Amino acid sequence: MTPYQKIYDAFLAKMLEDEWGDWSWEEVNTDWRAMLEGAIPWFKFPRVSLDRDDNGFIEDLSNEEIQILASYMKCEWLNRTILTWENVKPLYEERDFSQANLLDKFNNMLEKEEYKALKLERVYYRSIKGKPFNYGKLAGN
């Protein structure tokens, strides 16, 4: 069993922002769970089941699996941050599109985070327990 808090801790270690400071513990957990649920479909081929209950994942997740999920959670958070009304609203109210530059920077940051998560996944897929997969087995050797 892997409690949700393990993934949340890995997610928070990747964050510089703490938007949850004034929130209740229940609101924070609901928000983190929503981001985790949004992140899970991006993890295409985990080696363990991602079945979960109210307390966490039913199976034990490795550190690599936890880090991939945390990275995708950060992507979910960044996407939400980019699409906030405070960032989009000035595009509809002003002729000065300086806000567009900010949104462009946010989108570039999101692309970098998505790329980083994909790289983590590629390493994960090509190794088992830290050792490279023996592709020779696929050729019948």
Task: Give the helices and strands, then pairings.
Elements: E1 2-3, H1 4-13, H2 25-39, E2 56-57, H3 63-82, H4 85-93, H5 98-126, E3 127-128, E4 131-132
Antiparallel strand pairs: 1-2, 3-4
Describe the fold and architecture.
There is one protein chain. The chain has 141 residues and is mostly helical. The protein is 59% helix and 6% strand. The protein has one domain (2-131). It has 5 helices and 4 strands; from the N terminus they run βααβαααββ.
Task: Give me some keywords for this one.
single chain, two-stranded antiparallel sheet, two-stranded antiparallel ribbon, 4 strands, mainly alpha, 59% helix, 5 helices, 141 residues, flat
Classify the helix fraction into a percent range: 55-70%
DSSP strand count:
4
Give Rg in angstroms. 18 Å
Taking the alpha carbons of the first and last residues, their distance comes to 36 Å
Poorly predicted runs of 5 or more residues: none
Mean pLDDT: 80
User: What is the H/E string?
Assistant: EHHEHHHEE
In brief:
With 141 residues, the chain is mainly alpha-helical. 59% of the residues lie in helices and 6% in strands. A hairpin with a 2-residue loop joins strand 3 (127-128) and strand 4.
